[in-house]
Amino acid sequence: MDIASGEERLIADPLTLLMQEDPDDIPAEERARRERMRETASGVTMFATDAAVTVVAFPLAGRLFVAGLLSGMARELVVEGPVFDPRPDPTARRLAYVCGNSLRIAELDGSSWELASDEDPEVSWGSADFIAAEEIHRIRG
Fold first, then answer.
1. What separation in angstroms does the CA of 17 have from each of 7, 37, 38, 140?
2. pLDDT tens per residue across span 7-32
3. What is the pTM of this model?
């Protein structure tokens, strides 16, 4: 929304971005987050921006999408997934996201690399464990 004029514009339409795929076909991590938050909405249900609020990142159906809030253009970054909880860095030069139990970095050209992971299924990076999420309402790792 343009604060001065009050005019709103659509930045990302989930059905257009997913080319009519089901936006509710989501990874288990996202399904668990929605259950903990008692969230029943579909489509874009979470997003994060850079420090200047010019770039937004969000997951849809386990895929990573970014949009320029000044240009109004959204696009998919094809990276290793499924993608959960993507976050741009403060300068919007790259993004961090959770994929399974690992924390990954995505470059704007679509390449991605693993920052942290562990073979132990009890260890996860970038997401809160069940007790932290349920009992102390800490949603992020």
1. 23, 25, 25, 26
2. 898 999 888 888 866 656 666 776 77
3. 0.75
